[in-house]
Amino acid sequence: MLYPWTYANWKRLHAHPGGPGSSLLLAGPRGVGKRAFARALAQGMLCSDALVGGEACGACTSCRLFMADSHPDFRLVEPIPSEGRSETPDTSVTDTPSAKSDAGSILVSQVRDLADFLTVASHLAGAKVVLIQPADRLHLSAASALLKTLEEPPARTVFILVADRPQRLPPTIRSRCFRLDFPLPPRDAALNWLAAEGIKNAEIILAQAGFAPLIAAELERNGFSNKRRSFNDLLAAPHGDHVDLAAGADPRELPLVCHLLQRWCYDLLSLKVSNRVRYSPDYTEKLRALADNADVHQLANLMNDLVATARSLEHPLNARLVIEQLAIRYTRTISPKPA
Asked: What pLDDT does 38 receive?
């Protein structure tokens, strides 16, 4: 499936003389439709009766196999499950699923497992497609193994790499790919799509999702609006101490707590610096009242701590202790300063 804001990239790609070549990199932030685009592209390449614009017919044998996730000429390579462990790949030679630092990475063994697929002729006498997502999670050794294949790609085989953070890919891999960038869609296009999906308060949810419409839709379907309002009401209260705030935050949802607190502190800091609210315009007056007493330097330091906390969320953490520490820091930051 293609999202409305990705049609331009689809047309651009299929208008390119000679096509994208044997290696394609789809780059851009998460939640803008790159993965759906990649699957639509792979299906179109494998389709035996593709339409004029390059889209798959959806009815041929190849399409039916693809939609059933059983196409013999397609391979999907994704990270091993992180199981709550660090996403930072180890750069040592060790590359096994049991290695703690490898969790959440695409391993060299996964790339090497493609060898038979790449050397055997196509089962349906057409192209073969390898989809790697997110390619920026390639282990260093896996990236090196993939580079060797990209340098001498097998005939009639296309590699599609999807990357949320393409800068993490080695320059040698990026240089061998035809790059297609997927920026955040225009605000109106995103809001129109969310409205068509039945998402209420689309403007607020879109801002909370960093203006990525697919993330916004996922948040709302998971009951985000109610959780946000409950927590923001706690943040908006003029706390004398941290107890109420810490007690009202669910330690089982530490990532959500960090997300909401980051957005809230950003708005406080933005009000202090530029008199603007980005993420919670429905709380502007309450934010303004708190910002009057907030300290800019403490806000900036708290923002840095929240970023560091968010990066460590896949490590085992004492969530209750983390929430209490953040609550203490926040209440001190917004407390009225003595005259």
From this structure: 97
Q: pLDDT at position 61, please?
A: 95
- Tokens linked to 35: 């993965």
CA distance linking residue 47 with residue 107, whole number of Å: 29
The strand pair at 23-27 and 178-181 is best described as parallel
For the record, the structure tokens of 281 come out as 């315009």
If asked whether residues 158 and 11 sit together in one domain, one would say: yes
Task: Choose the final residue of a domain: 120, 155, 181.
Answer: 181
Q: Which pLDDT value is given to residue 239?
A: 63
Cis geometry, peptide bond prior to residue 134 (ω within 30 degrees of 0): yes
Domain match, 171 and 105 both: yes
Nearest Cα residue to 306 out of 243, 231, 235, 254: 254
Six-digit token pair at 305?
Answer: 């701590």
Question: Residue 48: how many CA atoms within 13 Å on its side-chain side?
Answer: 15
48 and 143 inside one domain: yes
- Write down how long the chain is: 339
Residue 248 has a pLDDT of 86
Exposure class string for 261-282: b at 16+ Cβ within 10 A, else e: bbbbbbbbbbbbeeeebebbee
Counted domains in the chain: 2
Q: What is the CATH number of the domain that holds 283?
A: 1.20.272
Residues in the chain predicted with pLDDT less than 50, given as ranges, are 83-101, 339
**CA–CA distances in Å: residue 195 to residues 246, 273, 280:** 34, 33, 19
- Same structural domain, 139 and 230: no
User: Is residue 194 one of the residues assigned to a domain?
Assistant: no
- Statement to judge: residues 58 and 142 lie in one domain: yes
- Contact in structure between 160 and 26 (CB atoms under 8 Å): yes
Whole-structure pTM value: 0.83
- Residues 177-235: tens digit of each pLDDT: 999 999 999 999 999 999 999 998 899 999 989 899 999 999 998 889 999 999 999 99
Domain hosting 276: range is 223-334
Residue type, 187: R
For residue 119, give the nearest of 164, 76, 157 by alpha carbon. 157
**Closest by Cα among 4, 7, 1 to 180:** 7
